[in-house]
Amino acid sequence: MTPVFLMDGLQKFIAEKTADIILPVRTRTGSNEVKERAAAVYTHGLPEADDAQQKVPYILLKFLTGVDEKQAGEPEESNCKIRIIFAVYSEDGQAGPLLLLNLILRVRSELKKAGLINGQFALDLPLEYIVYQDTTPPYYMGEIMTNWSIPTVQREIGTALFDF
User: Fold this and answer.
1) Domain span at residue 13?
2) What is the pTM assigned to this prediction?
3) How far is 84 from 148, CA to CA, in rounded Å?
4) Total domain count for the chain?
């Protein structure tokens, strides 16, 4: 469950740290819809399969891999990778990539400053970030690839799993 707790903590942390970055929203001509807002933060996937454009701007957290390992003479370690995907909208072809980069850099700097999520999940380097060059305007996308040290699952001593 620890990667799930990490994702929940990251969702809250990122939503709080990006709440003041107000971004354009695509609206229908003549509608009274909101024209700008902070990016919504989702875990695992968007609410609906066809929300990829309707929910922009958004930040999506995706669990990629987890590894439990133990090296001779060392304590067991658990790590996981979380991809943080960013999507923004802008009719301005020069402003769009900058809005995206600003959002990515805010999350990057806040993660590095904090170092820990929920007091138990440690951010490990490298922290890799990218602006996708092949996105189609007026939508712009990028990501941060994060690595985390997570608490290990402890074996219960004295609990028999098998009777021999």
Assistant:
1) 2-26+35-69+76-150
2) 0.87
3) 13
4) 1
Q: What is the CATH number of the domain that holds 88?
A: 3.30.2000.30
- What values do phi and psi take at 7, rounded to 5? -60, -40
Q: What is the pLDDT of residues 52-99, one digit of tens each?
A: 788 999 999 999 999 988 877 777 889 999 999 999 999 999 999 999
Query: Cα–Cα distance between 57 and 21 in angstroms, integer?
Result: 11
CA distances from 113 to 23, 46, 116 (A): 24, 28, 9
- Convert 68-82 to b/e letters by CB count within 10 Å (16 or more is b): eeeeeeeeeebbbbb
User: Is the pLDDT assigned to residue 164 strictly greater than 80?
Assistant: no
| Backbone Cα Rg of the chain | 19
Residue 108 CB neighbour total at 10 angstroms = 16
In which residue are the tokens 């903590």 written?
Answer: 9
